[in-house]
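Retro notes
What went well: the complex prediction finally ran end to end.
Inputs used:
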Amino acid sequence: MAATPITSPIPVAMYPTLSVVTLAIGLVITAFFFIYEATSSRKNRSLGKELAAAAVASVFLGFGSLFLLLASGVYV
Amino acid sequence: MKKNSSVVVDLLLLLLAITVLATPAFSDLVLSKVERRIDVTSQIARVTKTLKVVNSGSESVSEFTLTFPKFLGNNLAYLSVSHSEGKGKAKRSLANLSVKEAHPKGMPDSISFYSVSLPKPLSKGDTLTLEVVAAFTNVLQPFPEKITQRDIHLVMLQESAQYLSPYVVESQSLSIKLPNARIESYSKLENTKVQGSEIKYGPYKNLAQYSYAPIVVHFESKAAFAVAEKLVREIEVSHWGNVQVTEHYNLVHRGAQLKGEFSRLEYQDRPNPQGVSAFRHLLARLPPRAHSIYYRDDIGNISTSQMQSDSKKTELLIEPRFPLFGGWKTFFTIGYGLPLSDFLFASEGKRFLDISFGSPMIDLVTEKLIVQVVLPEGSKDISVTTPFAVKQSHEIKYSHLDIAGRPVVVLEKNNVVPDHNQKIQVLATLQEVQNIIQKCLAAHDKLEASLRDLSRTGDIQTCKAARKSTDSLLKDLSKELRPLLASLQSFPSASQISPKVEELVAKERELQEKLMAKHTTVVEGYEKKSSGRDIENRIASQQQKIIALRQEVDDLLEFIDEI
């Protein structure tokens, strides 16, 4: 009946690094989305590209904001 | 003055009541030696009693009754009884015994009774040594009750020089350890000595049941009489790796009240500062690896604090915004974060939190303690075990990103002293030690099996191979055991358990050696091709010892299991 200590699934020391990296990637993809909207005309734009960029960016930004909260001490 | 005389009248009435009443049917235990030590260097009076109990009757007894006069019993905050064996340096304390409040019929109301259940019934003629530790709050009465800023803080302790007990006492002594300051007066009975800052009463011989000799000691106390009227301690567990503890204190100075005005000039005058009865600092001992510590109140952050951390603890020294004189109050909040892996453990599919219960401040008495343990959202089947009685209830707290809310277990307890702070952390390490000992015993069984195989088949080579593998296995296990034993030593609350565990380990090692010796003799015997009977004779004595040792090891394992 050994008692094993429970730790977080991700090492706590990595929270700031992870938050910066995921937020950066998310913002880059958001930037790509905006640039795509700005440079394409009504005929050329593709819904698939827009949706894909939006989905991937939201995933990264979502995790990035979670890790940002954890890194700043709000252990949600 | 009025309070003093009313208590003395109480004591006299008590004496009268006792002498008038017929002695009840208590068992014929006799206390052959009672040593009491009262430590009043802080605001909590700690009494340590060593009682040697002899059963002079004809029946075996399984219960022992502890008594306190009611004015002490009402203020009893912490009571623990353990029994010890051995004399002098070889004394080892065994586990705590269960103590319950008892109300035997026909007893006067002015005595509190506690019934201790003995581990084994004490048979006729046997002796037993009991060690009792009791902590009392509010028994050091400030006298005079109102002082000016310039006066020293004098307090009064009322006790009995003779041990009040329902059993006959053959010899007893009392020693009161006072703080290193002025002793204003003390009751002078026969056999009273003052040695430095200790007053010794006794030894008194051959006293009847319920003998009582009231004494009063009036002395100066420099201890901080800090009492938390209400302490709300919130422990929030997050599976992302943090346990956040937030404590809200309402502190008051419960010593002699300040009469007259407070002069800051006199307080800060060097070289003669006036204001000895006040306290400025409070020391808190937090667990090691505490981080993000803050100390604030409703106005804002309080910067007068210092922190010192090492691998065993984190010490936080805080200084409230003003010095606290008698009757003055202050309130503040302390918060800190702790790493999750030090406090949350998983075992058998369940998770349990192992954390200390009371305030981390040393020598702080808490009148009302509320501990709120906030568990992550979706926790089910919540149960709490504490070594003392608490009042439990459940609540829900809505916090960051919550949908259904987090379950909160609220534990309430009144009159908490630092002695309540310790015991909860020991369970995790003990289990590991038990596991390793079980593995050692399994290795021993393998050795025995190999010997039996040898006697059946006569194959020496396999026997030797089995011996080699068990040797290396046992070496590995003893390596694993060493750091666990070291960590067990570091827990102060394990002071009763750790000698037992050490005994277990030592016995296991002895058993190991004897088994190895027996194995070697048998293998040699087979190599020399001596007859079966020769071999048996040689190992007969070893075999007996091995069986006895094995029995002792099993007993110790069972004992530790029960804890």
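What we learned: Helices of chain B lie at 2-20, 70-73, 264-267, 427-457, 460-490, 497-528, 532-562.
What to try next: split runs per interface for comparison.
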